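anyone seen this seq b4? input:
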Amino acid sequence: MSTIKNNGSTTRERILDEVETLIAQKGVYGFKLRDVAEPLGLRVPAIYKHYRSRDDVLVEVSRRFIALLAGQFDPPPRARPDRALRAALDAFVAFKLAHPAYVRLALIDFATPEGGMEYVKLAAGGSFKDNFSDGPLASMHGRLRGLLRAGAAAREFRRVDALDFYRVVKSALLIKLVFPDDALLLRRPSARETLEIQRWLWGVASRYLAR
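predicted toks r here
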């Protein structure tokens, strides 16, 4: 497989970078491989030297997503549980805003229970449920459970199921970023906009956890 370098990236990586940009701008189904090839100075057949199909490209983008998602909910050490959780949620917001394509990929994956190309599930190597105890996201879910248990033990939070908490914060953030408009996915948010969303998500989370 070719690993031609250009501006510090391989051709394979540049293809994925361009696909992420196009997903953010046009959606998962709104672009063709020629839209990927042209800005990179490539022809479509050159993409097939690196990926078998358009779906293969999207699965590989989803693997990037899973690898970065797996690092979430890893707060600073020795912080109080409430501050640790807030720092983790702030990082979660920053992650989503830095990668708007992953917001759209997640929403598409939830919408295709059977028959569709479930990109994120394929990239994760199993169902969402499988990843609570095994697979690339198991450690992320384990860290979140630890944060919530620590907060409950310190009587800073009520005791909650970690999966229910993750449902609340993930769904709230995804909908916040696409409804009633998706303007923040189409450009780089300002520091102030990012801070406002971080405060908003912490408000959702802290109300849910209130004793």
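The chain has two domains: 1-51, 54-209. The longest strand covers residues 5-6. kinda curious what u guys think
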